[in-house]
Write a structure and sequence with these properties.
Length: about 240
């Protein structure tokens, strides 16, 4: 399906998810949309299901019920490989633990998504130069590009994870507590850089955090309990 310019980048309806073998927790999302270019901060209690929701949107978890459409494509209509391809093309993902390949260089880590996403690759005419540009714009010195990711500080790894998510300009960014290991000053500097880059490519952002003070930076702040009915809680 082709996405029209005014279609939401993310459209969820009637979604219900339960972990296999667990009856004590279920997540129900009747309707949730993210518009193109919109930035949304998602707040919620620990164990309420924020990370679960992000995994459903990324297609790494599957719902048996309802629709999750990313860029107009319903994830349920795709095979596992199809969901992997859609994620690689459409979504830049930043996890809490960054998930960098520790023994690969910074540049190889940043360029990795392009191997699985032909459209992102074709938008990146000179990949190494683009990785260098992103690193500079995120405040990372050029000489880090050839170093192993494992040798970087936590804050530097965080910026590399953002550069990897941004390369090739995916239209949707999903971030799960990307600032949780930074102090307040570094957190603000990091968010300034990330929002600057997001604005340049006009991508949407759905970011989970425990910190409601970040809300001013976003177009919209959403409590998970406002968009989802949550059955049960973490034990
Ligand atoms: N792999 C898993 N298998 C079974 N249950 C899980 C699994 N991962 C998470 N859960 C359960 O799903 C529920 C929601 O967890 P989730 O990690 O989505 O919450 P969260 O809102 O992101 O929490 P936090 O803010 O603490 O990170 C919890 O009850 C948790 O125990």
């Amino acid at each position: 399906m082709n996405l029209r310019r005014d279609d939401p980048i993310l459209n969820m309806s009637g979604v219900r998810f339960q972990w296999p073998g667990r009856t004590s927790f279920a997540l129900n999302v009747p309707a949730f949309c993210l518009q193109r270019g919109e930035t949304v901060l998602l707040l919620g209690e620990s164990g309420s299901g924020k990370s679960t929701l992000l995994s459903l949107i990324c297609g790494t978890l599957q719902t048996g019920t309802g629709t999750i459409a990313v860029s107009g494509t319903d994830l349920a209509a795709l095979s596992g490989a199809g969901r992997d391809r859609l994620r690689a093309e459409q979504i830049g993902v930043i996890f809490q633990q960054f998930n960098l390949l520790p023994f690969a260089t910074v540049s190889d880590n940043i360029l990795l998504p392009l191997r699985f996403a032909p459209n992102r690759r074709s938008r990146t005419k000179m990949p190494f130069e683009e990785a260098t540009r992103l690193c500079r714009s995120l405040g990372l010195p050029d000489d880090l590009l050839g170093q192993r990711a494992a040798s970087l500080s936590v804050g530097q790894q965080q910026r590399v994870a953002v550069a990897r998510a941004l390369i090739g300009q995916p239209p949707l960014m999903i971030a799960d507590e990307p600032t949780s290991s930074l102090d307040a000053g570094s957190q603000n500097a990091f968010l300034d850089l990330m929002f600057g880059q997001l604005g340049e490519i006009g991508a949407s952002l759905l970011m989970v955090s425990h910190d409601p003070r970040l809300g001013d930076r976003f177009d919209r702040v959403v409590e998970l309990s406002d968009i989802a009915m949550i059955e049960g809680r973490a034990a």
